[in-house]
Amino acid sequence: MAPVAPRSGDAIFANVERVNAELFTLTYGAIVRQLLTDLEEVEEVNKQLDQMGYNIGIRLIDEFLAKSNVSRCVDFKETAEIIAKVGLKMFLGVTASVTNWDVEGTTCSLILEDNPLVDFVELPDTCQGLYYCNILSGVVRGALEMVSMKTEVTWLRDMLRGDDAFELQLKLLKQVPEEYPYKDDE
Protein backbone atom coordinates (compact mmCIF):
# COMPACT_ATOMS: atom_id res chain seq x y z
CA MET A 1 0.00 0.00 0.00
CA ALA A 2 1.41 3.42 -0.96
CA PRO A 3 2.07 5.90 1.86
CA VAL A 4 -0.59 8.53 2.37
CA ALA A 5 0.59 12.00 1.35
CA PRO A 6 0.32 14.74 3.94
CA ARG A 7 -2.68 17.00 3.47
CA SER A 8 -2.15 20.68 2.88
CA GLY A 9 -3.17 23.20 5.51
CA ASP A 10 -5.83 24.59 3.17
CA ALA A 11 -7.39 21.15 2.61
CA ILE A 12 -7.50 20.41 6.31
CA PHE A 13 -8.84 23.87 7.19
CA ALA A 14 -11.66 23.42 4.68
CA ASN A 15 -12.74 20.17 6.34
CA VAL A 16 -12.45 20.91 10.06
CA GLU A 17 -15.32 22.05 12.19
CA ARG A 18 -14.86 25.71 13.13
CA VAL A 19 -16.34 28.21 15.51
CA ASN A 20 -17.24 31.75 14.55
CA ALA A 21 -14.01 33.78 14.31
CA GLU A 22 -15.44 36.79 16.14
CA LEU A 23 -16.74 34.62 18.96
CA PHE A 24 -13.33 32.96 19.27
CA THR A 25 -11.52 36.31 19.26
CA LEU A 26 -13.84 37.89 21.81
CA THR A 27 -13.74 34.84 24.08
CA TYR A 28 -9.94 34.86 24.04
CA GLY A 29 -10.00 38.58 24.82
CA ALA A 30 -12.29 37.94 27.78
CA ILE A 31 -9.88 35.30 29.09
CA VAL A 32 -6.93 37.70 28.84
CA ARG A 33 -8.94 40.46 30.51
CA GLN A 34 -9.93 38.16 33.36
CA LEU A 35 -6.32 37.08 33.85
CA LEU A 36 -5.28 40.74 34.02
CA THR A 37 -7.94 41.34 36.68
CA ASP A 38 -7.10 38.24 38.71
CA LEU A 39 -3.31 38.29 38.51
CA GLU A 40 -2.78 42.07 38.36
CA GLU A 41 0.86 41.70 37.18
CA VAL A 42 1.39 41.70 33.41
CA GLU A 43 4.40 39.36 33.67
CA GLU A 44 2.27 36.82 35.58
CA VAL A 45 -0.38 37.02 32.85
CA ASN A 46 2.34 36.36 30.23
CA LYS A 47 3.42 33.26 32.16
CA GLN A 48 -0.15 32.05 32.59
CA LEU A 49 -0.97 32.49 28.90
CA ASP A 50 2.19 30.57 27.98
CA GLN A 51 1.28 27.76 30.39
CA MET A 52 -2.29 27.62 29.06
CA GLY A 53 -0.93 27.39 25.52
CA TYR A 54 1.53 24.69 26.54
CA ASN A 55 -1.30 22.61 27.99
CA ILE A 56 -3.30 23.08 24.80
CA GLY A 57 -0.29 22.21 22.60
CA ILE A 58 0.42 18.89 24.30
CA ARG A 59 -3.16 17.83 23.53
CA LEU A 60 -3.52 19.51 20.14
CA ILE A 61 -0.64 17.60 18.60
CA ASP A 62 -2.68 14.37 18.61
CA GLU A 63 -5.44 15.95 16.55
CA PHE A 64 -2.90 17.53 14.24
CA LEU A 65 -1.12 14.23 13.58
CA ALA A 66 -4.39 12.36 13.10
CA LYS A 67 -5.90 14.81 10.61
CA SER A 68 -2.85 16.00 8.69
CA ASN A 69 -1.27 12.66 7.73
CA VAL A 70 2.13 14.24 8.36
CA SER A 71 4.81 11.62 8.81
CA ARG A 72 7.91 12.04 10.94
CA CYS A 73 9.76 15.22 10.04
CA VAL A 74 13.40 14.74 9.10
CA ASP A 75 14.75 17.76 10.97
CA PHE A 76 13.85 20.97 12.77
CA LYS A 77 13.69 22.93 9.50
CA GLU A 78 11.04 20.64 8.07
CA THR A 79 9.15 20.74 11.38
CA ALA A 80 9.08 24.56 11.35
CA GLU A 81 7.75 24.55 7.78
CA ILE A 82 4.99 22.10 8.73
CA ILE A 83 3.99 24.30 11.69
CA ALA A 84 3.93 27.41 9.49
CA LYS A 85 2.11 25.99 6.49
CA VAL A 86 -0.08 23.21 7.91
CA GLY A 87 -0.49 23.58 11.70
CA LEU A 88 -1.26 27.29 11.86
CA LYS A 89 -3.54 27.01 8.82
CA MET A 90 -5.35 24.02 10.30
CA PHE A 91 -6.14 25.59 13.65
CA LEU A 92 -6.10 29.37 13.08
CA GLY A 93 -6.72 29.69 9.36
CA VAL A 94 -3.44 31.59 8.83
CA THR A 95 -0.03 30.75 7.46
CA ALA A 96 3.39 31.98 8.42
CA SER A 97 6.70 32.32 6.66
CA VAL A 98 9.79 30.70 8.14
CA THR A 99 12.84 32.98 8.04
CA ASN A 100 16.00 34.02 9.88
CA TRP A 101 17.60 30.59 10.21
CA ASP A 102 20.84 30.47 12.13
CA VAL A 103 23.88 28.61 10.79
CA GLU A 104 23.24 25.49 12.88
CA GLY A 105 19.60 25.25 11.76
CA THR A 106 18.34 25.38 15.35
CA THR A 107 16.78 28.85 15.48
CA CYS A 108 14.25 30.44 13.15
CA SER A 109 11.43 32.93 13.06
CA LEU A 110 7.79 32.38 12.16
CA ILE A 111 6.31 35.57 10.75
CA LEU A 112 2.54 35.51 10.82
CA GLU A 113 0.86 37.20 7.89
CA ASP A 114 -2.35 37.57 9.88
CA ASN A 115 -3.33 36.98 13.50
CA PRO A 116 -7.02 36.46 14.24
CA LEU A 117 -6.44 36.70 18.00
CA VAL A 118 -5.82 40.45 17.79
CA ASP A 119 -8.94 41.54 15.93
CA PHE A 120 -10.68 44.25 17.96
CA VAL A 121 -7.68 44.60 20.35
CA GLU A 122 -5.91 47.71 21.56
CA LEU A 123 -3.59 47.48 24.54
CA PRO A 124 -3.94 50.22 27.14
CA ASP A 125 -0.81 51.92 28.47
CA THR A 126 -1.00 49.84 31.66
CA CYS A 127 -0.52 46.64 29.61
CA GLN A 128 2.50 47.56 27.51
CA GLY A 129 4.51 44.59 28.80
CA LEU A 130 1.76 42.15 27.88
CA TYR A 131 2.37 39.58 25.15
CA TYR A 132 -1.30 39.30 24.27
CA CYS A 133 -0.81 36.27 21.99
CA ASN A 134 1.56 34.45 24.34
CA ILE A 135 -0.80 31.49 24.27
CA LEU A 136 0.49 30.76 20.73
CA SER A 137 4.08 30.45 21.91
CA GLY A 138 2.94 27.98 24.55
CA VAL A 139 0.94 25.95 22.02
CA VAL A 140 3.94 25.63 19.70
CA ARG A 141 6.29 24.77 22.59
CA GLY A 142 3.91 22.12 23.99
CA ALA A 143 3.25 20.51 20.62
CA LEU A 144 6.96 20.35 19.79
CA GLU A 145 7.75 18.81 23.15
CA MET A 146 5.29 16.00 22.40
CA VAL A 147 7.27 15.18 19.24
CA SER A 148 10.54 15.05 21.18
CA MET A 149 11.77 18.61 20.55
CA LYS A 150 12.53 20.72 23.59
CA THR A 151 12.23 24.33 22.43
CA GLU A 152 12.15 27.91 23.59
CA VAL A 153 9.48 29.99 21.84
CA THR A 154 9.48 33.78 22.29
CA TRP A 155 7.90 36.81 20.67
CA LEU A 156 10.34 39.07 18.83
CA ARG A 157 7.83 41.43 17.21
CA ASP A 158 4.21 42.18 18.01
CA MET A 159 1.96 44.56 16.08
CA LEU A 160 0.08 45.38 19.29
CA ARG A 161 3.36 46.83 20.55
CA GLY A 162 3.86 48.94 17.44
CA ASP A 163 5.96 46.53 15.38
CA ASP A 164 5.34 45.89 11.70
CA ALA A 165 4.61 42.14 12.03
CA PHE A 166 4.01 39.26 14.42
CA GLU A 167 7.23 37.27 14.75
CA LEU A 168 7.78 34.20 16.91
CA GLN A 169 11.29 32.87 17.42
CA LEU A 170 11.67 29.10 17.72
CA LYS A 171 14.89 27.83 19.23
CA LEU A 172 15.60 24.10 19.40
CA LEU A 173 17.25 23.41 22.73
CA LYS A 174 17.38 19.63 22.60
CA GLN A 175 16.14 16.83 20.40
CA VAL A 176 15.08 14.07 22.76
CA PRO A 177 15.48 10.59 21.27
CA GLU A 178 12.33 8.52 21.44
CA GLU A 179 12.44 5.55 23.75
CA TYR A 180 10.25 2.59 23.05
CA PRO A 181 8.96 0.50 25.95
CA TYR A 182 9.94 -2.74 24.22
CA LYS A 183 12.40 -4.08 21.67
CA ASP A 184 11.44 -5.79 18.45
CA ASP A 185 13.64 -8.84 19.17
CA GLU A 186 11.95 -9.69 22.47
UniProtKB/TrEMBL annotation:
<dbReference type="GO" id="GO:0006891">
    <property type="term" value="P:intra-Golgi vesicle-mediated transport"/>
</dbReference>
<comment type="subunit">
    <text>Homodimer.</text>
</comment>
<dbReference type="GO" id="GO:0033106">
    <property type="term" value="C:cis-Golgi network membrane"/>
</dbReference>
<dbReference type="InterPro" id="IPR016721">
    <property type="entry name" value="Bet3"/>
</dbReference>
<dbReference type="GO" id="GO:0006888">
    <property type="term" value="P:endoplasmic reticulum to Golgi vesicle-mediated transport"/>
</dbReference>
<dbReference type="GO" id="GO:0030008">
    <property type="term" value="C:TRAPP complex"/>
</dbReference>
<comment type="function">
    <text>May play a role in vesicular transport from endoplasmic reticulum to Golgi.</text>
</comment>
<dbReference type="GO" id="GO:0005783">
    <property type="term" value="C:endoplasmic reticulum"/>
</dbReference>
<dbReference type="InterPro" id="IPR024096">
    <property type="entry name" value="NO_sig/Golgi_transp_ligand-bd"/>
</dbReference>
<keyword id="KW-0931">ER-Golgi transport</keyword>
<dbReference type="Pfam" id="PF04051">
    <property type="entry name" value="TRAPP"/>
</dbReference>
<keyword id="KW-0333">Golgi apparatus</keyword>
<keyword id="KW-0813">Transport</keyword>
<dbReference type="InterPro" id="IPR007194">
    <property type="entry name" value="TRAPP_component"/>
</dbReference>
<comment type="similarity">
    <text>Belongs to the TRAPP small subunits family. BET3 subfamily.</text>
</comment>
<protein>
    <recommendedName>
        <fullName>Trafficking protein particle complex subunit</fullName>
    </recommendedName>
</protein>
<dbReference type="GO" id="GO:0005829">
    <property type="term" value="C:cytosol"/>
</dbReference>
<keyword id="KW-0256">Endoplasmic reticulum</keyword>
